[in-house]
Every structure is written in C-alpha cells, then in structure tokens.
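User: Sequence recovery, please. Input:
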C-alpha cells in the first residue's frame, strides 16, 4: 500500500513561525511534525510514500531525501499553486495504482492512529475522532458507521465527531476530483461528500493520538503530547550536582552544568550548554546548539535550534524560534488572554510569549501574555512588550 502525504501548504494561521518554512517542518519535541507522520506509516509497514510539496519544499526534501534514513521510499510531487487539498491530492494521480492512504503532513499522529484505519478501513473510509472545539474542523454526521455529511468549519456544530483528514481511498477518487475542479471546487471535503452519493463512506473512529496545530500556541499541546512518548537517554555530559527526574533525553555533545535541575518529560538536543543552577521543568524542548544561561527557569516551552537564552530568565508556556537571542533577565508572563489572529478572536489559557526566528532582544525585556513577536526583530534592552511586534521591526 502507498500513502500520499499532503505537505504543500504554508500554514498561514501559524505565522510567524511559518514565515520561512512549511507548517509540516515546525519542530515539536525536537522533530518536525512531518517526521511523526512518516514514522507512523513505516511502523505500519507502509514504506512507499508520496509527498505532495509546494511552499518551501526545499526544506522538506533536504531533510527527508529519498527516505532511506527513515526506512521509507519517498518521492515528491509539486503542487505548483496551493488551491486546496483535493487539488493537492490530484497531483499524485499518476503515482498510485490501487487503494491508498492519504493524510495531512501537519498533524501529530501515532502508530496506533494509522493502525486503526489500516485494520478497519474499507474502500472509501475516513478516520474520525472527537473534539471539544469541533467548529475548527470538518464536523462529521454519521448513522450506523456510515458518514452522512462532513461540514467544514460550521458556525454551529451538531456533533463532536470530526474528520482527521486521514482517508483510505480508491483510484476512482481522481475522476471525481476532476469533475469538481471543473466547477472550481478544490477541497477534499467536498469531494468526499460528492463521492458518498455513489458509494458508502465509512467512518472509522480512533481514540489514538491525533492533534492539529491551528494556531501558534497549539504547538505547546503537540510538544507536550510528543514528549510523553519520550524515552530516557543521556548522550551528553552531566556535571556533578545535577538532578534529573523523570524521562529526560540529552543529546550528544550537550553539557549540563552543576546544580542544574531537569524534570521530565523534557528533551535537550545536541551541542547545547545548560548553565549552572538552571531549572528545566516538564513539557520543555530545547533544540540543537542552544545556550541557556545560569539560574534560568524554562517550563512548558519550546526553544528551537540555535536559540540563546540569557541568565536569570523566566520562560513559561512560550515558544522561542530558531536563532533567537535573548538577553539576561528576560521574563515571559503567563495568563488567560484573548488573541486576535487571522481575524478570529481566540481565548487562550496559560500562554506566555511567542518569538519568531532570528529576533534579538537586549537584557531585562518583559513580555506580556500572548504577545507574538515576528521574525528578525530587534528589541532594545529593558523593553516592556504589551502588544504584538511585526516582523522586521525595531523596538527602541
């Protein structure tokens, strides 16, 4: 069996973290989201993988190559213009000869998730889960295991059942896509609603892992979930006086200075330096080649590759992008806040700040809850950040 992974989109609602790479390559627990999808397929003995790519596709190709490192055989097809999910799948029409799986590359899934579909799925099946916020997704109406309708992001939801966007399909879906694209309809939800008029569309329920990051703060939930599958490993150097509790992974070449306290689940990448008497608390990920200064506290946060956090900083429920440099004494306050993003008002609980790649901050910066700082910003020493900062801005 072959799998088609849809990985062409940008992920606009995840800006500014998708300013220079696709959503599928954003790291959680120090691995791109797309890597979890590939590993889940391979664990189910699905090794032939077709990736439909587009936005910043070079980032995907350079990381996965031909798939050999992941025990997969990966080929790539470009979606030249991101018109929709059905249009993306249509690009793979000459690469599949029989029934196949199609799935998004930007959802966190487990081996069991794919197993549920492979074992239970029939021709034309959709994998379904439940959500407390169904209106963000495709809401599914079912009767006796047969899908009656999928309503995409309805204003009022009549069900907590949602589509995961993972399907088991036969080749004749391509002819139906052609017909709908002729009417300028490019989404898979419409195709499936149309397809069920000629055959039953089975709904397969899963309680296994399936998580989607719609907005930047959702990455923290994905990171926490991925870390709870973490195996303890220590390939670095841990000095005397360090206390480590729970599952913690420390990468090769990393140094944990004396007096540090690390409580898992937490991961520290390769080539990092964690300063003395620093506390790294549960649900925290530190990427490769990061530096964390002495007496700093990091909790429930993502720190991406190459970031530098100054001494005596407090980072809670925050996301720090690749290559960010933060001076000493940084504080990210957390609270329940209302955030407007892409024209939508979202209430977010326990959120700190979100800082995109290559931003530089001086010492003594304080950030209010929910503040989003764009990439390549320059923030002066002692700044108090109450509002979002646009990419490339200087705060003086």
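Assistant: Recovered sequence (396 residues):
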């Amino acid at each position: 069996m072959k799998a088609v992974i849809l990985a062409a989109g940008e992920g606009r609602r995840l800006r500014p973290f998708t300013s220079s790479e696709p959503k599928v390559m954003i790291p959680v627990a120090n691995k791109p989201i797309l890597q979890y999808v590939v590993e889940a397929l391979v664990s189910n003995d699905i090794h032939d993988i077709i990736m439909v790519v587009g936005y910043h596709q070079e980032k995907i190709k350079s990381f996965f190559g031909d798939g050999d490192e992941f025990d997969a055989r990966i080929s790539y097809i470009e979606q030249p213009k991101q018109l929709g999910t059905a249009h993306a799948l249509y690009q793979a029409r000459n690469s599949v000869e029989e029934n196949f799986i199609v799935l998004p590359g930007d959802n966190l899934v487990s081996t069991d998730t794919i197993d549920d579909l492979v074992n239970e799925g029939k021709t034309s099946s959709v994998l379904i889960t439940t959500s407390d916020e169904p209106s963000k997704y495709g809401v599914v109406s079912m009767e006796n295991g047969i899908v009656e309708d999928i309503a995409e992001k309805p204003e009022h939801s009549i069900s907590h059942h949602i589509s995961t966007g993972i399907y088991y399909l036969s080749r004749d879906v391509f002819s139906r896509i052609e017909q709908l694209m002729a009417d300028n309809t490019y989404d898979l939800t419409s195709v499936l609603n149309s397809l069920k008029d000629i055959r039953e569309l089975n709904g397969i329920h899963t309680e296994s892992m399936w998580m989607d990051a719609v907005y930047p703060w959702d990455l923290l939930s994905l990171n926490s979930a991925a870390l709870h599958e973490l195996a303890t490993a220590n390939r670095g150097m841990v000095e005397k006086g360090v206390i480590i509790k729970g599952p913690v992974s420390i990468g090769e070449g990393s140094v944990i200075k004396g007096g540090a306290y690390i409580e898992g689940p937490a991961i520290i990448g390769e080539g990092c330096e964690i300063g003395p008497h620093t506390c790294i608390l549960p649900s925290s990920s530190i990427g490769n080649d990061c530096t964390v200064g002495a007496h700093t506290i990091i909790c429930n946060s993502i720190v991406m590759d190459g970031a530098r956090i100054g001494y005596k900083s407090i980072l809670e429920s925050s996301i720090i992008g690749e290559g960010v440099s933060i001076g000493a004494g940084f504080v990210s306050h957390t609270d329940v806040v209302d955030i407007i993003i892409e024209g939508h008002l979202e209430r977010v609980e326990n959120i700190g700040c979100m800082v995109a790649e290559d931003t530089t901050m001086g010492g003594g910066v304080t950030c209010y809850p929910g503040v989003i700082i764009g990439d390549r910003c320059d923030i002066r020493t002692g700044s108090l950040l109450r509002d979002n900062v646009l990419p490339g801005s200087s705060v003086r």
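Residues 33-43 form the longest helix (11 residues).
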